[in-house]
Amino acid sequence: MATPPAVSIDSPVKDAGNTIAAPAGGDAGALAVPAFSPLYQQIKTLILRSLQAGEWKPGDSIPSEVELAARYRVSQGTVRKAIDELAGDNLLVRRQGKGTFVTTHAESHIPYRFLRLLPDTGTLDEQGPAERHIIECRRLRASAEVARLLALRSGDPIVQLRRMLSFGGQPTILEDIWLPGLPFKGLTLELLSGDQSPMYALFETRFGVCMVRAWEKIKAVSADADAAQWLGVPEGHPLLSVERLAYTYDDAPMELRRGIYRTDAHHYRNELS
Amino acid sequence: MATPPAVSIDSPVKDAGNTIAAPAGGDAGALAVPAFSPLYQQIKTLILRSLQAGEWKPGDSIPSEVELAARYRVSQGTVRKAIDELAGDNLLVRRQGKGTFVTTHAESHIPYRFLRLLPDTGTLDEQGPAERHIIECRRLRASAEVARLLALRSGDPIVQLRRMLSFGGQPTILEDIWLPGLPFKGLTLELLSGDQSPMYALFETRFGVCMVRAWEKIKAVSADADAAQWLGVPEGHPLLSVERLAYTYDDAPMELRRGIYRTDAHHYRNELS
DNA sequence: CAGTGGTCTAGACCACACT
DNA sequence: GTGTGGTCTAGACCACTGC
User: Fold this and answer.
1) Domain termination site, one of B102, B129, B156
2) Threshold 0.85, pTM exceeds
3) CB contact under 8 A, B219 and A263
4) Most-buried pick from B113, B164, B182, B216 (CB within 10 A)?
């Protein structure tokens, strides 16, 4: 399987030396556009496309460096640099002696890769795994606000979820989640409730959607009646509001999430450099 | 200047092939300890030491790759990999055609490298630069808690600062800062107040202390009387508590800081991947 | 053992910045 | 032009994994 398609973004020519050809034939057509990129960047893009297209799924191993070098007709070192950067972005994981694998939210030893909340005292696996409870799952139409953030149009179909996470029996996080309706056709409360894996792992296996990076906006807020009831704190209690926008391989926003965190016994941890 | 000291951590031997010698002579002594590291790691450590020793200061350029390769008696590619990693950790900055520079908190186009608070609307330079006001600067003795976090002994001399940051005239951040007394001998309220640059830049130039990375622990809290007064909010108002422990090159904790942030018009931003 | 990623080298050439 | 970092190659060998 797989005959080498060779590099074809900037149509690199390697006749004499290692030059990269002009973006368009001859000298007509687009000018002024920078449009040149190093070979390894082009390889990176090609690999990204294969990930996006689902040629290699989360958890799978991708072809070896030697194979990819042959496929793209470049040296192993060039493939290596491309993979290095993708690994640096946490899209791939290298394992010496075994191969290079597509990063997944499942079967990872970090069950909640994007969750930055830690207990003030104790280890990561403190009181065993988090208890998860789906409160509701509704299909409705995007508000202007949600549509804007998810790059949809007002009124487009969406799925709205609400769930609660508890640690050691203590309700700690109340989350509202908005997902675009089309990619998540078939997502139901039953499906979510009957699943043991992290939500993002379910998204990968059932919907082929891989959350790759995200932004979070954090504020301190007062508990309203609703949050107070779910989290078991008095109204007005200070809580962390964590708004997350998560993206897939193609940098398309695929999830909007707003979590309300109790921070009595936990804290949001962040590393700076 | 500078005659090659050559690599000497693991005493790499490159007689035939590129082997790295055993950590200790013969086969006696420590066994079971892994203790081997690739050449580029050793180079990384040597560069780190030069940074630590102040051989190259923040903002300076370090020797070129070719020079370093000669100095350490390795190939340019090996130096390159070492520098790549240090650049990845934001300790160095590469500038094509110019050289490699030691990262600094001064003259950066990001005036507050470690500050993650952004305005909800508008750009980064929103209302011009932040107004800074030093409220107090006292020299006292470390409490058990502060000593533990700063790796000091209870009762060791420390400097305690309090300051306020305002954006567009709005008091937004109230910070208490604890510094070890010895490295910061000579730090006074006058020095701080008369300085226009970010505090970390002052630390670099006046005390040779470069903050390189940090952890932050974030919680939602209620404004106490003190914070309420300084920040102009009612008591009980939800605020962000941001506790930071900052480290220098040698991974020694060098600053403890606790900030109280208003998040009415701003938010703490974080990227996940 | 063969296959994978990891390290190291040496040399060529390109892109950029200063002078 | 000279010097810097940036890209690319080709080949050798090491270290780990699993058959």
Assistant:
1) B102
2) yes
3) yes
4) B216
